[in-house]
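Incident log entry.

Two folding requests arrived from the same account within the same minute. Monitoring flagged them as a possible duplicate submission, but the sequences differ. Recording both here for audit purposes.

Request one:
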Amino acid sequence: MTSFQEQTIAPQPGESPHPTGAQQAILEFVEKVEKLSLFQERIEKPARLPQVWQAFQAEIEHQISPAAMALFLVDPETHAFELSQWLPAEIEETCRSEIDAQIECGTFAWIINRRQPAVIPSIVFSGPRTLVMLPLATHTRTLGIAMIVAAIEENTITHERLRLLGILSKQCALVMENTLLYEQLKAEHESLQAAQAQIIQTEKFAALGRLTSGAFHELLNPLNIISGHLQIMMLEQDLPSSWSDYLTLMKSESDRIATIVNHLLCFSGQRHKNSDEIDIVETLRQVASDALKRRAAKGVGLEFDFEKKLPRVTVNAEDLKTVIHHLVDNACEAMPEGGKLCVVVRYAPTDGAGAIHQNSLIIDIADSGRGIAAKNLHKVFDPFFTTKDIGEGMGLSLAISYALVRSMGGTITFESHVNDGTVFSIQLPVTDDSHEPECFMKYPGATAS
């Protein structure tokens, strides 16, 4: 297939075999346009906005020799133009001042409404400087604007180069729009996956709660009878020592079954809860320290980071203590050779776009242990899921913690990386947020020996 250039330069009868100056200029311009049209293909898909900007910046430098460049993107919520990228680093404030000045004098609005490249004098940049403003707009919306600062005396901003930059900015806008759409679709997909996982988890707990609620009395009544008879038998005099040991073991195991049943009942939501305002700092320090001592975890250092002033929370104190005990136990098991356990409490005021609850208290329990394998991440809160050997654990501690935190009106999440530790985050709605947040205060921890 004969290319455009070959067709153009083919000599006609009576013409010179070499293109004229005008023809050569046209050919060069067409070649530049063809190169610019491949801008989208040169960007890795899917690209990030910084990658798009770097490629755009490189193309601009091919056309002119800019003294500085900046990228302003439209904030999707406020619709304001926010400075996103700039080069060199020291021009950040100058770029902001320049745009503010252009907006104030009305030039900026004229450029955006025109949706075409424009050359205007600089108001803020020192020295003889001119600005090349390249609106980044598609047929549906305006995404931002690129500002190129160049020296006037260089006289490099010709009409031809301005047209080429206009074509380039349109190509860049399409790439940026595709990037933003991809990121939006990815975020929506992740949100949908999280919501689906939450629904599945809720259904699991609801089914377990219905089962436990229905079997609660059927299980506990026989257990109470067995336990009562065991106690009577243990009161008998002159029992052989072996019998006494057997009876004690049977009583202990029947009590263990009763404890498991009572724990499972928390999934049914039928337990009566007494809630009180508690001192979260003192509660966490006491419970975490006691849990660590009870585990006799050798070489595990305990550290606390609390804000100086924290709002109070209204929860069932015993339930919260149970959750902290479970999380500390799991953290210690993840650090069999020792490590660091850190308990952080922070206040998280929000406008609704950040934390799940407005004005929340976040409790982070972080360990430096072995982490959770990727294949098990979605099973962490499942009842009876455990990676321990048979007989070493029931796999209920995290499931019970999940149910108890939900019953307090809060949420519990986690983040884990293999060989890089795990962080469990409990988020509780605060009772009173009328306090002034202050900097974090580090309390000395303890090291279990």
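Request two (distinct sequence, not a duplicate):
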Amino acid sequence: MSTAPLLEIRSLAVSFTQYDRGLRRRTVTALAGMDLTADRGELVALVGASGAGKSLLAHAVLGMLPPNAVESGTVRFDGVVLDPAARRDRAGRDLALLPQSVTFLDPVTPVFRQVRRAAVLAGRSAPDAVAGAALEHRGLGPEVHRRYPHQLSGGQVRRVLTAMALMGDPALVVADEPTPGLPAEAVRAALADLRRIADRHRAVVLITHDLAAALEVADRVVICRHGRTVDEARPADFHTDELTHPYTRALWHALPGNGFRLTEDA
């Protein structure tokens, strides 16, 4: 019986070819070496500052990089190495992205129709009933079915996106910055929902810059910087002063509750 994690990313690098004036070509390296694992029943938080490459990793896992991207390294899913095309084929079924922006919803289509379409694409029978049940399960009754995304609160939009992401019963859910702009109560609800998803024998990768919030729900925390993963720690390590990497310590000390202490470690 295999003991390999459900998701295993090793030395993932992504670069883009760009053209300057005069058709001069240059290569821009966005990810320079990302390592991450996540297993069923586990919520792994990928934490880093803006521009660290977190969202790009999310899109790479789903095989959703643009055509000018060049990828190296390995991504294994359930012990099998998958190239970008194979990962893209599994997106929406075995692999699901919970995106960060309301722009992933169609602004001119009512919510229920969008959730129903997700059910159809996932191959679910009786898509009307499935879509209604998925929304109701997340506290969204018939009164929101005909509403458009702009008529929903931020928390309601997140619940719609979550219902759609889980429609194919994926084994892996990648949640890309699911809480920015939400009030504190909605943030807690969204993170608790992700924790429940992991506890239902799925793997969850939570991509966030909110270290303090991640510590409330994560089993492990992976720290990234400048397109590389630089450290991995347990949530308990942050509260017992057992952090060993200087950048991880700098992130922790810079939080408001820790006095905004900026150190040379950063």
